Amino acid sequence: MNPMLWGVGTSDYGLQPEKRVEQLCWTAIAEAVADAGITPADIDAIIVGSVFGPPGVATRVQRGIGLPGVPMWTVENACASGTSAYHEAVEAVRSGRFGCVLVLGVDQMSTLFSGAIVPEATDPEGASSLPLPGLYALGAQRYVQEFGVTPEQLAAVAVKNKRNGLDNPRAQLRKAAPTIEEVLSSRMIAEPLTFLQCCPTSDGAGAVIVGGERGREGDLRIEASAMVSGALWDHRSDDVWGYASVARAAEQAYAQAERTPSEIDVMEVHDAFTIGEIVTLEALGVAPRGKGAELAPSGHTARDGVQPVNPSGGLLSRGHPLGGTGTAQIAEIAWQLRGRAGARQVARHRVGMVETMGGGAAGMDGNACVVTILSRP
Amino acid sequence: MALGEGRPTKRRPGSAVGGLPVADSRPVFDGDAVVGVRCTVCRYPVAQNGIPWCPSCYGTVEPARFATTGAAWTSTVVGIPVGERRPPFGLAYLDLDDGPRVLVHLVEPAILRTGERLRITGTDAGDLVAEVTA
Ligand SMILES: [Zn+2]
């Protein structure tokens, strides 16, 4: 069965500790079910992507929507949890295991922790107080020295995405977009990354309905979905952390879709930090290695550019509800491809791509990466 | 909420910051060397102990002692508190001579030149600490 995207839905993104985590999910699911034109009884299986759960959240969500007994499971692949759940749904439909799968991505970060960042103590680098912005900063600093990437080039990514986010009514950050100078003069988090180059953590959920071909208006073809786990990242690696895992997933996705990077009209990629978008676009083949930092300043990736990247505002603007991020990216691409993205709509919108990369385990080039390519039939 | 203030962490913070103790997974420095394992087939070096085989070729591994000197691969200066660490503090990936890449704290927080020579001088609360050598 050729897998198709039938419907999408999301909650708002932001700090919403007053809401039940299930409420975020029900909002997203209700929108996705209506968007897909199905009834709840059409759903054959539920796959949930979440990092921090809480444990049992999937069942509490299931109770509220009245889908007892269907196969259901939860996937944890760090920031790529939501898209990993989606990938399993795509493969399940492709193989004929299920006819219609509900994918749910969710995390509610605001109710979890307080105080300074404390990385995972069981990880060798986490135990040594390497925060995630520090890991990205180590890559960014390498790029500064190896390729001459400038602070202004890094900041341009934040300016672009935060400006895009102004038109996203569900984004966490919707105030005025900063200037390059404001990005660079914000607090230094880890050199060279300043505060406004880091995504805010967020609460949010997204739902995606995946099924087979049925000839319905608005359904989108899932041309490719590739999921890879991490590989050794060590003294032999000349690429910065994360690059290789994205490149592996991208290679598989382009091969499945029989497409080249220049054929992608619009994309949502994992810009948890400004350097993340730059390295990712190189790994996706949008720019040669060392040239990714030129894409935002040149306007190539602007909303009215040749290949708009993160028209939603990305993680830098929408916020990052870990498991909820991948499903948010897929929802944006679905709206863009159907021409229903309102003020955010890009001009060319036949082929779209989503990339999500999750990491945090020392010595590996990522925990997992998912790349999917969708198109308007 | 600002980064570093009231921010999410992970499930197991460790005893240093008020959680329950967890087994230490960091590279071990015994005063003269970084202690780990090396593959008897392909010589792949790992600064971890207790692994069942070479992660690169699946060959048999044996205990190994790695040099304390090497070249900086990249570095950063962290400007926010992390766990018990107070800013600013310097971190670098250090490619040990004929050894693995390890994360080290810097005696003097600074951005290093790629390839700058470093030497591990000891540990601080269990973290490897390195300084620039002339
Ligand atoms: Zn080996």
From TrEMBL, chain A:
* Superkingdom, natural source: Bacteria
Q: What class of enzyme is it?
A: transferase
Question: Has UniProt tagged this entry with the keyword Transferase?
Answer: yes
EC number(s) recorded for this UniProt protein:
2.3.1.176
Please report the stretch or stretches of sequence annotated as the Thiolase C-terminal domain: 238-361
User: PROSITE patterns under this entry?
Assistant: THIOLASE_2
Gene Ontology BP, a term? lipid transport
The protein's GO terms of the molecular function aspect are: acyltransferase activity, transferring groups other than amino-acyl groups; lipid binding
Entry annotated with the keyword Ribosomal protein? no
Keyword annotations: Lipid transport, Lipid-binding, Transferase, Transport
Query: Per the database record, which ranges form the Thiolase N-terminal domain?
Result: 14-210
Write the protein's name. Answer: propanoyl-CoA C-acyltransferase
Automatic annotation (TrEMBL), chain B:
Which domain of life does this protein belong to? Answer: Bacteria
Q: Which residues form the ChsH2 C-terminal OB-fold domain?
A: 69-121
Specify one Pfam family: OB_ChsH2_C
- Quote the InterPro entries the UniProt record gives: ChsH2_C (IPR002878), NA-bd_OB-fold (IPR012340)
Q: What is this protein called?
A: ChsH2 C-terminal OB-fold domain-containing protein
Q: Which organism is it from?
A: Pseudonocardia sulfidoxydans NBRC 16205
